[in-house]
Amino acid sequence: MNKDFEDNSPDFTRRKKILKVILFLLLISLIILVVQLFLKENLFYFQENFKLISYFAVYNLLILYIIIRLDLYVSTKRIKESKKVEVPNEFRVDAFKQTGSIILHIIVLIIFVFIVVVGVVAKVGIFAIIFGLFGAGIIFYFLSIISIMIKSRKYSLEAKNRNIKIFCKNQEIRVFEIKDISFVAFSGSGRQKVKRGDYPIMEIYSIKGEKILKIPLSLKNYWILKKYFLKYGVNIEDSYSL
Fold first, then answer.
1. pLDDT tens, residue by residue, 179-209
2. Are strands 235-238 and 181-188 parallel, antiparallel or unpaired?
3. Which residues are listed as membrane-spanning (predicted)?
4. Angle of CA points 224, 228, 230, to nearest 5°
5. pTM of the prediction?
6. CA 184 – CA 227 distance, rounded (Å)
7. Which of 30, 66, 81, 174 could join 166 via S-S bond, C-beta 3.0 to 4.6 A?
8. Is the sign of the CA dihedral 51, 52, 54, 55 positive or negative?
């Protein structure tokens, strides 16, 4: 089970190679810049411009190196923490509350509603109708996203050995066993493309192809549930990246 869990961990080989290339270019740029600084009194006009380019290259390469190095450090630390997580025989997992995302969506929605209202009032005729319909579509989209996030906060999952219970507002709504599961999918909250800052989303599908549960998770609960399902040999599709 631990081997299966580690097999899905990110491969940092490419990132480490990129760091080596950036570090090499950074050293070359620094050497060129130092030479230019020592010979600054003998530089021609075009060489002065080249010195500015060297400054720019050193600055950007240094920032890029620091960002990738920090990202690598954080990701490595998270993987080490995930390996320490133990799966108890009985546990309960509550949905990730997504408070920050909900507040952000509400703020964006309010701003957009204001823009739409002002835009419709300012325009006349067919343009006001088209703008209003377009705005209404966007508003409906944001409202549906916010509604889904608020609803998903109410779910929780309780596991005891091979038995699983699903709760909504602490009321039991479904009971099933591991053998009833076809596969479990993990993805990021950014949907298709996982990006830094996304939280995990878990979906459980029955052997009949029915979606049993879709629930947002904290990072720790993601590790616990993934290890739990691997422990009992459940098929897992995981596009979430640490």
1. 999 999 988 876 656 666 678 889 999 998 8
2. parallel
3. 21-40, 52-74, 102-122, 128-150
4. 120
5. 0.63
6. 12
7. 174
8. positive
